[in-house]
Design goal:
phage-related protein like fold; seven-stranded mixed β-sheet
Length: 334
């Protein structure tokens, strides 16, 4: 038996060599025999925070504009009001005026080809996905307008917080007189808060800031901020506070404002000496008034090649009281 050789053993080296020769390698197979998997979650390449849209009250509107009646206090002086019992009483009345906030329209349209939707059906509903992210784009445009909208520059646009508050010089606090801005001084923020009507009721106030503005405020607070200085706002979000006031980040607040030393003279354009601002708002006196809430409407098809939809909103930002908000300008972003 010892002299008998298994015939398979003799061919062992040959079989191994042929097996290796038949092995498939990457260079030989390329990408033909590979089944790739594409994740079905489409990543939106944006960084957006809709702070104002998420926290400001929304009220229904009617007519062509939101109309607000305002009263300027009468000028009472000691000489005219403290009188003897036989003296004639001097007349002193307040002044009344009406302000209007015209409803403007924000609208956009999306389109997906029939063939593209059919080809992508096994992957995802392309039309539904485009509608979802088109709404995100739409909200971003509205959030931006709530701060830098300017009907003087574009007559069909709403006026934003920086425009309306900035138009009242007494409500603008200069963090510095230098055009390039400076590090935030908390005393200046305190001054702005004191200028806001109803500021004693901290629950009605909110501080809007960009990411940069929030970092500047956090840096100024680092020496005194308590770890538990947090509060819960709309939708259950917990945010930092300053003196009991929520600090809400919004990507609608620009970091390229032009600062003259006393006022913001250009919105969202400065490249040489860019600055940012903090906006302090009493929500009882500032709200979004909507004639038509944000609406998505699929359009009737008149072409077999395309499916289209519109997104639209009719409304205005109402700053009912000129003392209902204040801002700190001239905050350096570097």
């Amino acid at each position: 038996m010892a002299g008998i050789i298994n015939p398979n053993w003799a061919n062992l080296d040959v079989n191994r060599r042929q097996a290796f020769e038949r092995a498939i390698n990457v260079s030989g197979a390329g990408t033909v025999l590979i089944q790739n998997y594409v994740n079905k979650i489409i990543q939106q390449l944006t960084l957006r925070e809709f702070g104002a849209l998420g926290t400001m009250d929304r009220r229904p509107g009617q007519g062509s504009a939101a109309l607000i009646n305002r009263r300027t206090a009468s000028a009472m002086t000691a000489a005219s009001e403290w009188v003897a019992d036989t003296a004639t009483v001097a007349e002193s009345t307040g002044a009344y005026a009406q302000s209007s906030f015209t409803y403007q329209t924000l609208v956009t349209r999306g389109k997906v080809t029939r063939k593209m939707r059919a080809r992508g059906r096994s992957y995802i509903d392309i039309l539904a996905e485009e509608m979802t992210w088109k709404l995100d784009d739409f909200n971003n445009a509205l959030e931006s307008a709530l701060f830098i909208g300017n009907s003087t520059a574009l007559s069909t646009q709403i006026d934003g917080l920086l425009t309306q508050i900035g138009a009242v010089s007494g409500q603008v606090v200069a963090n510095t007189s230098v055009a390039a801005g400076d590090s935030l001084t908390l005393a200046k923020l305190d001054e702005a808060i004191d200028l806001v009507k109803g500021g004693a009721g901290r629950s009605d106030l909110v501080i809007y800031a960009s990411y940069t503005g929030a970092r500047k405020l956090n840096a100024a607070l680092s020496s005194r901020q308590r770890f538990d200085d947090m509060t819960e706002i709309a939708a259950g979000f917990r945010v930092r506070t300053y003196d009991g006031i929520p600090i809400v980040v919004s990507t609608g607040v620009p970091d390229d404002l032009t600062w003259s030393g006393t006022a913001i003279t250009a919105l969202h354009s400065e490249t040489t000496n860019p600055t940012t601002a903090l906006v302090v708002v009493n929500k009882r006196y500032n709200w979004v008034e909507e004639l038509t809430p944000t609406t998505m409407m699929p359009l009737a098809r008149d072409d077999s090649q395309f499916e289209q939809f519109d997104l639209f909103w009719d409304g205005a930002l109402v700053c009912a009281n000129t003392l209902g908000g204040a801002l700190v300008g001239g905050i350096n972003v570097s």
